[in-house]
């Protein structure tokens, strides 16, 4: 078994351009790349648009005049992101997903970034992912990606615990400014406690039987593009893609219903919404994996339990990520924001509940209200 993604035989070789782009002047560097990628474009007619939603990298779109038909995206890797992102694995994910019609074209790499095709459509928001029609499109697209087979015939191994352990080993515990240090002391448990909770989480979640599939692992709302004209959604940004537990990818997406800039866990999907989403997902997954049987109530309940438990691992994982980014990122974002840190604290608290409960129970909601689903029934705990 292995965690590495393998590119299909015959995939095109990725072009490498020896250009370094200053992240403080992305537009100028992007123009140098455009001269290589689009030599027929008149430089005086090329326009650039800086995208500001990213929390890891700098991104600029390049196009001619007002035409949106051919937009080249130039992404400059953020400072020290090699600590948290396996760039080689990202490129392989890009290639595999493109080969299966799930990703745009990758034009080239350069010394500190990549260029790729702009995907036509609209990035979704927290209300869009709750829309009944879009919800179904998202569930089906995730099932399509999860059904992609490993190309070397090996049985894939989940990357979650390896990645989480790596993040844990490099999380920042001290900052140069006193204010950040004070927030760390107040809002984040000790590394000893975090390591203990991480061990409990691995022990319990690894035994749930969630299939290991090709996962996106970072399906926040803005990483979902809806093409209304063609009637489909596609996922973008594959920095964290890897083989992982099916239930982690879904649980992580459900966590992202809360948003990013202003977290609101009241938006975490209800039991009814989750069951609708999961039923559509299972139906599509069976279709893509050529299984003909109907989705059983037990299958649905089992996946619900797995997803909500793995949502805890998602909180833990991104809590570590936030601590690393707070130390090294040059992007103007409050990585030490109290709600991001509450995710870490909440998941630790829930993990303690998890280890005291049987594996037939799970956490339903956060912010102190627990609803534990059981196979065959539901009960709430105050």
Automatic annotation (TrEMBL):
Database matches in InterPro entries: Kinase-like_dom_sf
SUPFAM superfamilies found in the cross-reference section: Protein kinase-like (PK-like)
Gene3D superfamilies hit by this protein: 3.90.1200.10, Phosphorylase Kinase, domain 1
Molecular-function GO terms, alphabetical: ethanolamine kinase activity
Keywords assigned: Lipid biosynthesis, Lipid metabolism, Phospholipid biosynthesis, Phospholipid metabolism
Entry superkingdom: Eukaryota
Record-level GO cellular component terms: cytoplasm
Pfam families xref list: Choline_kinase
Coiled coil location: none
EC numbers: 2.7.1.82
Pathway terms, separated by semicolons: Phospholipid metabolism; phosphatidylethanolamine biosynthesis; phosphatidylethanolamine from ethanolamine: step 1/3
Biological processes, Gene Ontology terms: phosphatidylethanolamine biosynthetic process
Family per record: Belongs to the choline/ethanolamine kinase family.
Protein name, UniProt field: ethanolamine kinase
Lineage: Eukaryota, Metazoa, Chordata, Craniata, Vertebrata
